[in-house]
Amino acid sequence: MKDIENRQDLELLLAEFYNTLLKDPSISYIFTDVAKIDLPHHLPILADFWELSLFHTGDYRNNPMKVHLDLNAKEKLTEQHFETWLNHFYDTVDRHFEGLNAEKIKTRAVSIATVMKIKLAAT
Fold this sequence. Notes:
mainly alpha; Globin-like
C-alpha cells in the first residue's frame, strides 16, 4: 500500500469513508436526515479541508467548528457519534493507505474530534 500523497488520494479516501459511514445507521441519519448533505457537493469541500490540514495547501476557507456547532444545535453529537466516526475513518485509512501521512491524518482526526467535543460540551 502507498501513503496519502496528494489530493486525489484524499478524494479516494473521503469517497470510500463516506460510502462506509453512510451505511452505518447509528450515524448516517445525521448526514442524511439532519445535515441533509449533498455528498457530491460536500466531498470537494472536505478534500479542501484535509488538503489544508495534511499538506498545508489548498483553498479551504470555511469554519468547521461553526458547522458542527450548528449541527449540534439540531442533533446532539454524542461521544458515541465521534467514536463511530473516528473508527470508520481509521478503518478506511488503514484499508487504503499506510505511511507517515496516513498516520498523520488519523492523528489530526482525533485531535480535531477532541477539540470539537470540548467546545460542544461548553455550549
